[in-house]
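[Meeting: bench + compute handoff]

Bench side (C.D.) handed over the final construct sequence. Compute side (W.E.) agreed to return the predicted structure before the next meeting so the bench team could plan truncations. Sequence as handed over:
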Amino acid sequence: MAQGEAAGRSTAKPQDQGWAWMVLVAAVVLQGLTLGFPCCIGVFFTDLQHEFQASNSQTSWFPSIMVAVLHGGGPLCSILVKRFGCRFVVMLGGLLSGLGMVSSSFCKSISQLYLTAGLITGLGSCFSFQAGVTVLGYYFVQWRTLANAVASTGVSLGFTLWPLLSQYLLDEMGWRNAFLIFGGILLNCCVCGAIMRPIQLASGSLSQSAKPEEEPGSRAEETQLSNGASPHHPMLQQHTRRTKCFQMLHKYLAFDIFCQNKGYQIYTVGVTWMMMGFALPHVYLVPYAIHNGVEERKAALLISIIGFINIFIRPLTGLLSGHRIFTGRRIYLFSLAVLLCGLSNFICVISAEFSVLILYCVILSIAMSGVGALTFQVLMDVVEMDKFSSALGLFTILESITLLIGPPLTGLLVDITSDFHYVFYNSSFFLISAALFIGLSFCALEKKTKLREASKAHMDSPSRYQYSETSTEPKAESKSPPAVEYITSI
């Protein structure tokens, strides 16, 4: 009897209570350390240029690689999570992030920074962030939406604190010592990962990651083995490798959804195009302000203002967009937020006075809050939830490509013209054109769908048998969190 009670206690569900809230605190800190970190790179932009005698384009490759890897490493992170678990991947990410920044403090050329701070730190931040958010899905069921909303405030806190700390360390001890200290700070991701201990569920509610699915490739291999083929036959091994590779691409990169789902196609292309200009203010705002005579401390404060306003506006935007009034209309709210981002850039073109730049940061932060809160909600609207994981894999990889090439191309334009205004012209062009493309395309798609449905209803009414069949068809639902989940934040 006592053994039965002990077994019951050991398999009790820990979701939504007790240690789950400690995990949530760790997730907040984790998001501040990882997603918030790239925003401070602009503080070091001018010093790195002078140190390595690099152009704007060459210097901007460093933060571009970091952000692109941070967003595009989702599929690799999910494979590791499935194989080793969230706790291990978060701690691995912390080690990589710390190692990358410590190595960066000893770099002798800007190209070495691409590898250390760009690739290694970016990949480590990706692992820590995405595995840290994935574990929330296991610890929270009833309060999952609230937990994700609270965790996302860590990004805004990071945006607020990282630039201020960066400017202080830069003034006191230079960029090399600052990067060395950053390496130690990022190692705290390992502490956050240690808090995220593996969850022990009741025997009837094992997570999907604990029950590997039988893949078609393994069934095909078993069939050939039963027919007498040797498992070590070269042709069979090559066929098995090709099959597994195809299955992995199909699982993590939703090319079939992209070809069949017009809404997903429009949204993915639009957001990918938008990312060419979305990150430009984060990279170039501080150098632009310093170039126009703003004191370095005040210039670093501009990024902190954007983050501070995000702390309050982003949750409000998420709550507002979740109201039933906006059901089916969130895509237009998203387009409006992107359009406002693009239009706000013209404020910087008008004047580079510090007071004007503060106004710009306030408006940009409000618009960015809308984009950040709606990006994945809209994706959930246009893609069925059972296909969301793979759809998000392709989505994040495509946007990471434009995040990578956007700032360096704009930096090249600034090098040629010696005019920082082209940063904001470029950003406005990509953002406004993306907003118009997404909004108008979905409007046309919606009208086309309504016309098709009206025409179909007019020509032939569905039979009662067909209606009852589709209305009573059971849908399998799983309360367990997804085994594979890519999550990024903007």
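W.E. noted at the follow-up: The chain has two domains: 17-198, 255-454. C.D. will use this when planning the next construct.
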